[in-house]
Design goal:
This protein has 574 residues and is α+β, with helices and mostly antiparallel strands. It has twelve helices and 20 strands. Strands 4-3-12-7-8 form a five-stranded mixed β-sheet. Helix 3 crosses helix 5.
């Protein structure tokens, strides 16, 4: 009998149940790996989490057309959808790794470790990586997952009495408990062998059940433990995040030397369904590439100003900025990804320091005055770069380094502690959040983040108007229906808004009072609605006399344009 060979290779044939459990083991190992990594990242740096690091790398390499589609389709939930997609892909890979481990236990565990290495590389190569310590969460998580998978598969591969081994393919077809004795190359029945075989099979079945119970117990225990640990880590938060939150809570905004003029009484229209003149911070749109909102400690924050035309490089603290002359202004911001009639526009009261004053003190001159730099490149703590024309920043408009929004310190989601605000330009070429550096250079010398991805290097805001009420496919009652909405053309202002019902003539809407040319304007039009299906269309004319073109264009490369329309069904009548 070839018992020695079988003892050296105590591996039996896998059953269908074994394969299902191996797939489950791969999923549990991947889950524990991510949970442990998340726990470690909460103590190191949340951005070092493997899902966040890999997700950031995916965002950077995603074609601009696909990014724009994601924003249109999922709105501000695009980041959650991306992370869910990454997790689903990891789940599929985990199932495959579990099945691989069933055939090659060490190789399967090594595959988990390989993914940990990839996560570590993604973390340390991110633009916002601070040190090699960012690799630790991925590596520790992978080690935990690999060890768990090795242990779980070991439970399934344990030899059992009566089980046929993969090595039992010899001449006699023998296994852990054979039913015959080898005699001269054949087999000979042995008295009592049948009963012994049956007993062995029963013992094997009992052992299999015990092994699977052990597998499930280990999987459930480690999974619950990892869940609890990760939840605790998220609840407690990282020390860096706690310090950042404390620095924001302790911040006291200075009183502006130049307060914003009072909003005219007629600028706020009391029409149900219309966008409020001032957008609350909680409702202000957010479009960026940060999967984890950076939480910067205001006490440690520094702004570096350097580059072509800068007489002497400057490094400023938040207190340095707040000690300067501060101004308060109402300014509407708009995202280039906003489609015709879209939601990515908002108006807020910003508090900050004039950027042009700071630049001039540093010796910077605009190109019109012979300055060598025509582009200002702002860098965020998360590695984002945004290029802004120096001429626009220094032409007299209220370009700000803002630290206040609607009477409070900037929310973390909107750039705390400091962000740029430049009226008249789309956000992707002006509104750098979490800013930490300003470099003076040229458009020829440097392409900011979005330019190589197909977006225009310069992008003034386009004249736009939107119908807020009635809503698309609404069913208002016949009679007088108040059509209302907003229009914007920052730094040019809005001169006129017109509404058309079906293919009828254009009718001038009533404009709310203008606050400044850098803010949107509300408008209303009382429509005598008749029963049936109708299309309402709006267009605006800006302060220069230019009217919105009819033809709709896509957001790329420099913003959408065209008339916004809604279809409604008026109810009532005979």
């Amino acid at each position: 009998m070839n018992a020695t060979r079988d003892t050296l290779r105590p591996v039996r044939e896998a059953t269908r149940t074994d394969r299902l459990l191996a797939a489950l083991g791969g999923l549990v190992a991947a889950y524990v790996s991510l949970a442990v990594a998340d726990l470690v990242a909460s103590r190191v740096r949340p951005e070092a989490s493997p899902v966040v690091a890999v997700g950031g790398a995916v965002v950077d390499r995603t074609p601009a057309v696909l990014k724009d589609w994601a924003i249109r389709t999922f709105g501000e939930d695009d980041k959650a959808v991306l992370q869910l997609g990454i997790l689903l892909l990891l789940a599929l890979l985990a199932v495959g790794i579990g099945l691989l481990a069933l055939r090659h236990r060490v190789l399967g565990s090594a595959a988990v470790g390989a993914f940990g290495v990839l996560g570590a590389l993604a973390a340390v190569t991110r633009p916002d990586s601070e040190s090699a310590v960012d690799a630790v969460p991925s590596l520790v998580g992978a080690a935990a997952g690999a060890l768990l998978l090795y242990v779980l598969i070991g439970r399934l591969l344990a030899p059992r009495p009566g089980a046929v081994t993969t090595a039992g393919a010899g001449a006699g077809g023998e296994g852990w408990a054979g039913s015959g004795a080898e005699v001269g190359g054949g087999t000979e029945s042995v008295p009592g062998a049948e009963s012994e075989s049956a007993a062995g099979a029963g013992a094997g079945t009992r052992a299999a059940r015990a092994d699977r119970r052990s597998f499930l117990l280990v999987a459930a225990t480690t999974g619950l433990a990892a869940t609890g640990a990760a939840a605790l880590g998220r609840a407690v938060g990282s020390p860096a995040e706690e310090n950042a939150a404390a620095s924001r809570a302790a911040l006291r905004l200075p009183r502006p030397a130049s307060p914003a003029p009072p909003v005219p009484a007629g600028a706020r229209l009391a029409v149900p369904g219309i966008s409020p003149f001032t957008t609350p911070n909680r409702d202000f749109y957010r479009v960026d590439t940060a999967l984890v909102v950076p939480k910067v400690n205001a006490d440690r924050w520094r702004l570096r100003l350097h580059g072509a035309g800068v007489r002497e490089e400057l490094t400023l603290t938040l207190q340095d900025l707040m000690a300067r002359r501060t101004v308060e202004r109402d300014i509407t911001l708009a995202c280039v990804s906003n489609e015709v009639g879209g939601p990515y526009v908002g108006n807020a009261r910003w508090l900050g320091v004039p950027l042009a004053e700071l630049l001039r003190e540093a010796g910077v001159r605009p190109p019109s005055e012979g300055g060598p730099a025509d582009q200002l490149v702002a860098r965020s703590v998360d590695g984002m770069t945004i290029g802004t024309p120096v001429e626009d920043v220094m032409d007299g408009r209220d370009a700000l380094l803002a630290f206040g929004m609607n009477g409070e310190p900037l929310p973390f989601e909107h750039g705390f502690p400091v962000r740029m605000v430049v009226p008249g330009l789309f956000g992707y070429v002006s509104a750098c959040k979490w800013i930490e550096s300003i470099e003076l250079t040229t458009f020829d010398a440097y392409d900011a983040y979005w330019v190589p991805r197909g977006w225009a290097a310069e992008a003034p805001v386009k004249t736009q108007s939107r119908i807020d009420t009635p809503r698309p496919f609404g069913r208002p009652a016949a009679g007088t229906v108040m059509v209302a909405g907003v229009a914007w053309a920052q730094h040019r202002g809005i001169r006129r808004v017109e509404v058309r019902v079906d293919d009828g003539p254009w009718q001038e809407a009533r404009l709310a009072a203008e606050d400044t040319r850098d803010t949107w304007r509300q408008w209303t039009y009382p429509w005598t609605a008749t029963p049936g299906r109708h299309t309402l269309t709006v267009r605006a004319t800006d302060g220069t006399g230019a009217t919105q073109p009819e033809r709709r264009t896509k957001t790329m490369p420099d913003g959408a344009q065209g008339w916004h329309s809604v279809v409604v069904t008026v109810e009532g009548g005979a």
